[in-house]
Design a protein that fits this description.
Keywords: ATP-binding, Cell cycle, Cell division, Cell shape, Cell wall biogenesis/degradation, Ligase, Nucleotide-binding, Peptidoglycan synthesis. The chain is of the alpha/beta class. It contains 16 helices and 21 strands. Strands 8-7-9-6-10-11 form a six-stranded mixed sheet, sandwiched between helices. The longest helix has 16 residues.
Length: 459
């Protein structure tokens, strides 16, 4: 199938409410295309305000029943979750309209720009947002296609995961979970880390090696034992204080006070309104890539001082009755551990709650969840879990979140299971006291944002 971006006039997105799909839909609408789409969440009334925000951008939204596809439609874009039995796919085939996956379309867009692709198993969304902010502040007018909404864009009434700038620079979040990262041939490839997530390490190493080979200029994190194996030139790379491996960009002097961090990169001081050492790592990655576009360290520092964060990444909802409530997208073992650790400097005790998603990935990562979360918890900290989020489809429900809780409890940590998350607050409240952090973690479930807000309001 030979599809050229310039010839696409009226694309239709199936699953347009998804983070990855909505970003590309908004981007194409911003470049003058006539975009429309459908989503099963529209049918179920579970899309929150995403539908309204898409329509405010001029994107027509339909129920997932085939009604939105017309003779004018010249391309169907389907997310990986869309099956051939969906009404729109059937109608597209009847009308002879070409169908491509989201990743194929993103590859076409990336090929049309001076693209910086941010890859890795953790930190992609945050680093993509930080890099976009730096380039924007530096006057380079970049575009962005990300998997999470930037708070600065959300404040303008947008979903926040896409923006069309005036230059050739484009920053994208490159996903390894579906293997789509191998389709991109970016001007700059940025590799943050490699950890077991969705795939085994050996398979991930092959995926990221292809990413390296496809990148014109490649940057890796020397502080990650797996990503450093793919280094092209040490002087192009970055690291955080620890082993002092000689990377070209080195972050030192980390400090966290409350939910703010500070550190230095090559003598330049940085202060950000985010928490956790992992965010220092994300920041130095973004800075390293920005320098390759000609941005000075001082300008990068000034830009990140104004960084407002992204949706549901250590998002502080507020303090009530002396208890901080934090909402976080963490969903794999390393991310959950990092989220817990980022809250520990703030409070004597962290009470964390996690809703795993998907029975297959939870089973795949079971031992990793137990290990990473247990090692992150201090003796006084606690982890709570509710039952695994089921998004539909065919799967074998042969594991429970309670299995993870039992694994963590067996390792000597405070772990509790409350099957129905609606009963979480009444169960967890006796464990909370003034000065604690209540950290709420989970992904893929579109109702989690409202759930966290409800917990905060009822606390």
């Amino acid at each position: 199938m030979n599809i050229e971006l310039k010839n696409i006039k009226a694309p239709f997105f199936i699953g347009v409410a998804g983070a990855g799909m909505s970003a590309i839909a908004q981007y194409l609408q911003g470049t003058g295309k006539k975009v429309s789409g459908s989503d099963r969440f529209f049918n179920e009334g579970k899309a929150g305000d995403i539908k309204a925000k898409l329509e405010n951008d001029g994107i027509q939204c339909f129920l997932q029943d085939g009604s939105g596809i017309t003779p004018e439609t010249d391309l169907i874009v389907a997310s990986t979750a869309i099956e051939d039995t969906v009404a729109e796919i059937k109608k597209a085939k009847e009308l002879g309209i070409p169908v491509i996956k989201r990743s194929e379309l993103l590859a076409l867009i990336a090929a049309s720009k001076k693209t910086i692709a941010v890859g890795g198993t953790s930190g992609k969304s945050t680093t993509t947002a930080m890099l976009f902010d730096i380039l924007t502040y530096a006057g380079l007018s970049p575009s962005i296609i990300s998997g999470a909404g930037l708070v600065s864009l959300i404040k303008k009434g947008k979903i926040g995961n896409a923006f069309v700038g005036n230059s050739e620079w484009l920053v994208i979040e490159a996903d390894e979970s579906d293997g789509s990262i191998v389709q991109y041939q970016p001007k700059i490839g940025l590799l943050l880390n490699i950890e077991k997530d969705h795939k085994e390490l050996d398979e991930l190493m092959q995926v990221f090696e292809t990413f390296k080979n496809n990148s014109e200029f490649f940057i890796v994190n020397q502080s990650n034992e797996h990503s450093r194996k793919l280094s092209v030139h040490l002087v192009n790379d970055f690291e955080i204080e620890g082993e002092n491996l000689g990377a070209g960009f080195f972050a030192t002097g980390f400090q966290q006070k409350g939910f703010k961090i500070s550190f230095d990169i090559e003598g330049q001081h940085f202060e950000l309104n985010v928490a956790g050492r992992h965010n220092m790592e994300n920041a130095v990655a973004a800075v390293t890539a920005a320098v390759q576009t000609g941005v000075p360290l001082k300008i990068a520092s000034e830009a990140l001082a104004h960084y407002e964060g992204i949706y549901r990444r250590c998002q502080v909802l507020g303090n009530k009755s002396g208890i901080w409530v934090v909402d976080d997208f963490a969903h794999n073992p390393v991310k959950c551990a990092a989220a817990i650790k980022s809250c520990q400097p703030v409070a004597e005790k962290v009470v964390a709650w996690f809703q795993p998603h998907g029975y297959t990935p939870t089973k795949f990562l079971r031992s990793d969840f137990a290990k990473e979360i247990s090692e992150a918890l201090r003796p006084q900290d606690e982890i709570w879990m509710s039952e695994i989020f089921y998004a539909g489809g065919t799967t074998t429900k042969d594991i429970s979140a309670n299995d993870l809780i039992n694994d963590i409890r067996a390792l000597g940590k405070n772990a509790y299971f409350v099957e129905d998350r609606n009963q979480l607050l009444e169960n967890v409240q006796p464990h909370l006291q003034e000065g604690n952090v209540l950290l709420l973690m989970g992904a893929r479930d579109p109702s989690l944002e409202q759930f966290s807000k409800d917990i905060y309001e009822r606390l």
